[in-house]
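Posting for a labmate who doesn't have an account.
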Amino acid sequence: MDLLPEPPARHGRAAATRQRILDAALAEFAANGLSGARVDEIAARSGANKRMLYAYFGSKEELWMVVLERAYAAKRAEERALAVNNLPPVEAMTALVRFNLRYVARHPEFVALLNAENLHRAAYLARSESVRALYSPLLEVLRDVLRRGVEAGQFRADADPVQCYLTIVSLGHFYVANMHTLSTIFGVDLGSEAALAAREQHCVQVVLGYLRPA
C-alpha cells in the first residue's frame, strides 16, 4: 500500500527548523570556527535539540560543509545579480571591485568562515563540487569583461582573469579581516562609511590603473 504524503505543514516546519539550525550554525562557526564551535550551543541558538540537528546534518563537520557552501553560494548569487555582461568594460570592472569590498564589509561572517577553513587547509572545501562549480562561470564572466576592455582599447591585453580576481577579492578581504587591528594601529575607524568609501575608491583606482594599457 502506498504511503500517504506528509502534510505540507509538516514539510514547512521541517524547513523552518533546518533554516534555524543553519542560521545558528553560521553564527557559532563565524564566532568560533569549526574546532571551537559547540553543537550544544548551535542547538540552543536554534531552539532545536541535538538529536534533531544530527538527523538533519549527520555531524558537526557535515553541518560546517553545508554552511560553507551556502556562504559561497550567497555571495555568488549577489555577484551574478550585478549582470556585468550588460555593462561597458570599465563600469563592469568597477562594479565587481566595489561589490567585493562592500560584500565582505556587510558580511564579516563570510570572512570568518574562510579564515577558519584556511586553518584546515581547505580540507572541507576540497570535498565540495558545488563551490568549484560556482567559480567557473565567474571566471568566464571576468574573461569576457577583460576581452571587451581590450577590444575597446581600455584594458591591457595580458591581464590574467584569475590573477585579476585574486587581486579584487584580496583588496576587500584583507581590509575587513584586519579591520580591528588596523583601526587600532592607525587610530582611525576603518569600519566607518567614510573609511569604506575611501577604500572603495582606492581599490577601483588600483585595479583600473593596473588594467590601463601601457
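Reply:
Got it, the C-alpha cells are right above this. The longest helix spans residues 8-36.
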